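Spend some time on this chain, tokens included, and walk me through the fold:

. . .
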Amino acid sequence: MAAEVRGPRDKSDRAHDMPSKARRAFDQNAHDIERLLEIHADLGGDQCGRRHRLGVLNKSAIVLITAIWEAYCEDLAAEGLEHLVDHVSAADRLPVELRKRIAKELKSDPNDLAIWRIADQRWKPLLRDRLTQLQDDRNRKLNTPRAENISELFNIALGLSDISTAWCWRNMTVARARKKLDEYVTLRGAIAHRAQSEISCTKNRVSDFFGLIKSLVAKTGGRVNTHVKSITGKSLW
């Protein structure tokens, strides 16, 4: 399974191996995290020991890392759905789970003629309309981008079941990746909603969380790309 990673490429490959739009936005946003770490090093040095007065930088970094992870997943889900709309030739090529979800939504519509919204290729604009609906849902639910919520997002948007099965690499199991993500998202919530003095956060935790998210981004992007390519025959990047 190809992960969404960047590295040296032959010129002939570059046109077909660009990162997704979501990944490019993530990389741009990640510069802010790197800058916070640089500021921490400039002010506190690299010696061992806690820098109490710099704790606010660590807390800010945790909040920002969570935000760019959330944004990446939202952007990637939307990008994947647009890719399906643009490149799927017929509705029966869509993932079964996605078709089931759309059918369920139409059946629950009080308008008896709602089913005709998918006739004569009108399923494509229907899918595009789902982007707005998904955005509204995300605004209500994905302010805590835990493993369960991220999996639900990609299932609803793309018919991709449990994206977290891709979250494994050397010395990291799926279960541990999910657990660590949820712990850091919980920490972000504590920083945002409790008295600041009650929360302790070190630079090492920031670095660990940042490394975790960069790996999750690569694995998530690779899994989504594999999924949409298996349906459309075309890669996201």
Observations:
- The helical segments are 11-14, 21-44, 55-87, 96-107, 123-141, 147-158, 174-193, 203-232.
- DSSP finds eight helices and no strands in the chain.
- The first helix runs from residue 11 to 14.
